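Need a sequence for this fold. Nothing fancy.
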């Protein structure tokens, strides 16, 4: 048995408790909410993300829109209406930044930049993103544009935005990485995000569940701890 196969075996045993778990609904009709949630979700507790989502929904409804069907174009328009990302952060978002580095831009800046980037390559709806995921070359093109935005280079939000749009996957954030490290009894710093995606996708197959459902089950387990 190869080392990878043994790691899959160990993790499958550890994840047996999650068999039958279901994936969250995400936002299959709103790329706008996918973008907001994914960018806001890193390095914070999720209730802060939920507040931004509530604010965005309320703002759109106040202006006659349907946030559950918003495209990247609709999202970008809210920044125009509020005269920029700083005002957007005050009205809808918050003061959270894309990283801990000095001078890192607000997450609101990254949200606007991602909306603009997606419009630029004509991926404006969640369905557009799901369609792109069916073609490896096209998905690579979208990924390249997504990762250009400040703070998104590590790829966590790239995996997450796809999952929220309905593309099955694993979001290799710090909680997922910690779970894998603990299960395999190896140092957290040695666990590569790409390895997490590969090994947990294999585990999901072993458990006959989607990768997204497994990711969410692990995330809830880690959050409870």
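Here you go.
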């Amino acid at each position: 048995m190869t080392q990878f196969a043994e790691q899959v075996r160990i993790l499958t045993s550890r994840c047996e408790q999650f068999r039958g778990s279901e994936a969250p609904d995400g936002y299959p009709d709103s790329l706008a909410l996918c973008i907001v949630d994914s960018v806001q979700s890193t390095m914070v507790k999720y209730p802060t993300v939920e507040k931004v989502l509530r604010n965005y929904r309320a703002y759109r409804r106040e202006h006659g829109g349907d946030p559950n069907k918003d495209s990247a174009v609709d999202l970008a328009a809210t920044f125009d209406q509020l005269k920029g990302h700083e005002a957007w952060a005050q009205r809808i978002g918050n003061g959270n930044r894309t990283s801990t580095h000095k001078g890192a831009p607000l997450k609101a800046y990254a949200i606007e930049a991602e909306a603009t980037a997606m419009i630029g390559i004509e991926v404006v709806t969640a369905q557009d993103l799901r369609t792109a995921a069916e073609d490896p070359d096209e998905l690579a093109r979208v990924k390249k544009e997504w990762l250009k935005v400040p703070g998104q280079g590590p790829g966590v939000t790239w995996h997450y935005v796809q999952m929220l749009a309905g593309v099955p996957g694993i979001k290799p954030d710090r909680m997922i990485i910690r779970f894998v490290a603990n299960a395999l009894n190896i140092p957290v710093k040695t666990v590569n995000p790409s390895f997490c995606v590969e090994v947990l996708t294999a585990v999901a197959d072993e458990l006959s569940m989607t990768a997204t459902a497994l990711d969410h089950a692990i995330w809830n387990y880690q959050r409870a701890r």
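For context: The chain has a mean pLDDT of 94.
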